[in-house]
Specification:
Blueprint: E1 3-7, H1 37-45, E2 53-57, E3 70-74, H2 77-90, E4 95-99, E5 102-104, H3 106-113, E6 119-125, E7 148-149, E8 154-155, E9 158-159, E10 162-164, E11 169-172, E12 179-180, E13 184-192, H4 197-209, H5 220-230, E14 236-238, E15 245-247, H6 251-262, H7 266-273, H8 281-286, H9 288-300, H10 305-323, H11 328-355, H12 360-388, H13 394-419, H14 437-450, H15 454-465, H16 469-478, H17 482-495, H18 498-525
Parallel strand pairs: 1-2, 1-4, 2-3, 6-14
Antiparallel strand pairs: 4-13, 5-15, 6-13, 7-12, 8-9, 10-11
Helix pairs in contact: 2-4, 4-5, 9-11, 10-11, 10-12, 11-12, 11-17, 12-13, 13-18, 17-18
Family: Belongs to the CDP-alcohol phosphatidyltransferase class-I family.
Protein name: CDP-alcohol phosphatidyltransferase
Transmembrane segments: 308-324, 336-355, 375-403, 477-496, 502-522
C-alpha cells in the first residue's frame, strides 16, 4: 500500500488573489451525508493509507485537525517543500502525493496507484483553438525553433508550464524555470515508486532553498515534478480519460464539480478498465464486446476469478471430449465449447480487475490452464481423427504443441528481460539553470544517436506503420495470439477435420513464431 501525502498548503492558482477555503470547510451537499471535500477524500484513501501525512499552513491547519494521520504545519512554500522531503525520506513504500482539495473518482485513484511506472502524474493537455477547417489558429512553432518561455497561460486555474510528450513529462517550468513550448498542466495525483523517494527528497530540499524565486501561481505538486524531471526521473503521464478529477477551491466550485462528477459513469469506466487494452483482433471484436458484462454479472454475484477459471477449464475439457468423438455434430459442439472456454478465460481476468481480487494462485491457474485447455483439445482432435478414420495426426499434434511451447518459452524469457530493463532516464540538468535548453539539446543528441543504423531505421518505419488501423490489426493477428488460436480450432475444427486444423495451427503458428523472433532479435540488437 502506498504512503499518502496530502498537500493542504499548495500555493495554487488563487494564491495571488488570496487564500482559498480549506477543503474541510467545503461541503458536498449533493452527496449522501453532505461530506466535506477532505472528509470524502480521507474516506477514499482509507484503504490505501489510513493515516496519511497532511501538510498545511499554520493559518489553515485547524481545519485539518480531527482527521486521521499526521498533520505537519508549515509557514511558507519552503516549509512545504521541506515537509515533503521529510515524508519522502521516511517512506518505506510507494508514495501517493495529491492536493487535499481533490475531488476524484475512486477508480482513477486505483488506476494511478496500480501503475507499474516508477513515477506517474495526472495531466491535462491544453486545448487548442481551431478554425472552421480544423486547423490550429495559432500553429505550433517547430520544437527546434521554439524558445523557452515562462508560461502565462492557465487551464483549469493552473499554469500551463509543462511539456508532455506521448508517454511522459519532458520538462516542467515555474516562475523561474522556462519551458520550451509548454502544452499541459499537472492536475494532481503523483504516484512515485519508493526507489525514487530519495531523489524526491533531495529535489524538494533544493527547491526549498530556491523558494524565493517562485511565484504565487506555482503549484506545489508542479514544483515536485519539476525537481524529479530535472534530476532525470522518467515521470509517466496519464489523462483523466472517462473519469473525473478537479481541485476544489470554493463552495460554488464544490457544488458545480460534484454535479459534473455525477454525470460520469464510474462503473462503466471501471468495467472498461477491466478489459485489457492490448488484446488481439479476435478477442477485441468477438469476445470483449460482451464478456465484460458477464464479468460484472459474475462479480456482483460473488463469483471469484478462480471459480470462473474452473468453468473455463470444464468447458475446455468438454470441448476436447466432443472433438474426440470424431463425428460432425461432436466437432461442431467442440468448436462452440472451446469458443466459450476462451470467453470465460477472458472473463476470469476481467472479474479480477473489476472486483479487484488478485492473487498468486489465480495468476498461476490462469497461465497454467490456458496451456492445459489448448493441449487437451489437441489430444481430443487427434483421438477424434483416429476414431473417424481421418488417420494418424499425432505427429501434427506434437508439432503444433512444440511450436506453441517454444513460443511461450520465448515470450516468457523476453518479457522477463524487458521487465528488468528500466525506462530510459531523461538527461538531468541543474535546478539552478532557468531555461530547459540544455535538456532539449541533450534529447536531440540522443535522438540523432538512436536514429543511426539499418535495424533502428527498419524498426522505426515499422512502428510508424502501426498508426494505420489495418497494419495495426495485421500485426496483432500475425503473431497468432491465444484468441486467434482458439478461433482457428473452433472454426476449422467444426467445419473441416483435425488434419486441416493442425496444419493451419502449424503454418500460422510458424509464421507468427518467425515474425516474433525476428522482431525481438532486431530490438535486442538495435
Amino acid at each position: 500500500m502506498p504512503r499518502v501525502v496530502l498537500l493542504g498548503s499548495s500555493p495554487g492558482h488563487d494564491a495571488a488573489s488570496g487564500p482559498s477555503a480549506p477543503p474541510a470547510a467545503l461541503t458536498l451537499p449533493a452527496l449522501p451525508g453532505c461530506p466535506t471535500v477532505i472528509g470524502k477524500l480521507h474516506g477514499q484513501l482509507a484503504s490505501l493509507d489510513p493515516a496519511p501525512v497532511t501538510i498545511a499552513r499554520a493559518e489553515t491547519a485547524t481545519a485539518y485537525r480531527g482527521f486521521p494521520g499526521t498533520l505537519v504545519e508549515t509557514s511558507d512554500l519552503a516549509g512545504d517543500l521541506r515537509a515533503v522531503a521529510d515524508a519522502a525520506e521516511r517512506a518505506t513504500e510507494n508514495l501517493l502525493i495529491l492536493p487535499a482539495n481533490s475531488l476524484v473518482h475512486d477508480e482513477l485513484l486505483y488506476q494511478i496507484t496500480k501503475s507499474k511506472r516508477g513515477a506517474l502524474a495526472l495531466i491535462a493537455k491544453e486545448p487548442r483553438e481551431e478554425d472552421e477547417n480544423g486547423d490550429f489558429i495559432v500553429p505550433d512553432v517547430p520544437i527546434d525553433e521554439a524558445e523557452p518561455e515562462i508560461g502565462d497561460r492557465f487551464f483549469e486555474g493552473l499554469p500551463v508550464r509543462t511539456r508532455a510528450a506521448k508517454s511522459r513529462v519532458i520538462s516542467v517550468g515555474s516562475a523561474y524555470h522556462a519551458v520550451t513550448r509548454p502544452n499541459a498542466v499537472l492536475l494532481g495525483p503523483l504516484h512515485l515508486n519508493v526507489r525514487h523517494a530519495p531523489t524526491l527528497a533531495e529535489a524538494a530540499r533544493e527547491l526549498a532553498d530556491m523558494a524565493h524565486l517562485f511565484g504565487p501561481e506555482d503549484d506545489l505538486l508542479q514544483l515536485l515534478v519539476l525537481g524529479l524531471v530535472r534530476r532525470g526521473v522518467s515521470v509517466g503521464i496519464r489523462g483523466r480519460r472517462d473519469l473525473f478529477y478537479r481541485r476544489v477551491t470554493t463552495q460554488a466550485e464544490a457544488e458545480q464539480f460534484v454535479t459534473e462528477m455525477a454525470a460520469f459513469d464510474e462503473d462503466r469506466a471501471r468495467l472498461n478498465n477491466a478489459v485489457k487494452g492490448a488484446d488481439g483482433f479476435f478477442t477485441t471484436f468477438f469476445v470483449s464486446t460482451y464478456s465484460r458484462f458477464i464479468a460484472r454479472w459474475a462479480a456482483r454475484r460473488g463469483l471469484t476469478p478462480n471459480q470462473v477459471t474452473l468453468i473455463s477449464i470444464a468447458l475446455g475439457v468438454a470441448s476436447a471430449a466432443c472433438f474426440a468423438t470424431g463425428e460432425r455434430p461432436g466437432m461442431v459442439a467442440g468448436g462452440i465449447l472451446i469458443y466459450f472456454a476462451f470467453v470465460f478465460d477472458c472473463v476470469d481476468g476481467q472479474v479480477a480487475r473489476y472486483a479487484r481480487k488478485f492473487g498468486v494462485l489465480g495468476a498461476w491457474l490462469d497461465a497454467t490452464f490456458d496451456r492445459f485447455k489448448e493441449y487437451v483439445v489437441f489430444a481430443g482432435l487427434a483421438v477424434g481423427a483416429a476414431v473417424s478414420g481421418v488417420g494418424d495426426v499425432w505427429t501434427l499434434a506434437l508439432i503444433a504443441l512444440g511450436i506453441q511451447s517454444i513460443r511461450h518459452l520465448l515470450d516468457f524469457s523476453f518479457g522477463a528481460a524487458n521487465r528488468r530493463k528500466p525506462p530510459s532516464p531523461l538527461p538531468g540538468i541543474p535546478l539552478t539553470i532557468s531555461p530547459d535548453t540544455p535538456l532539449r539539446a541533450a534529447l536531440e543528441e540522443r535522438k540523432v544517436a538512436r536514429n543511426g543504423g539499418t535495424i533502428r531505421s527498419l524498426l522505426k518505419m515499422w512502428s510508424k506503420a502501426g498508426k494505420y488501423r489495418a497494419v495495426h490489426w495485421a500485426r496483432k493477428m500475425i503473431v497468432f495470439p491465444i484468441g486467434e488460436r482458439f478461433a482457428v480450432i473452433a472454426i476449422v475444427g467444426a467445419f473441416f477435420d483435425a488434419r486441416i486444423t493442425f496444419l493451419t495451427l502449424i503454418i500460422w503458428g510458424g509464421i507468427g513464431a518467425v515474425y516474433s523472433l525476428t522482431g525481438r532479435l532486431m530490438r535486442s540488437l538495435a
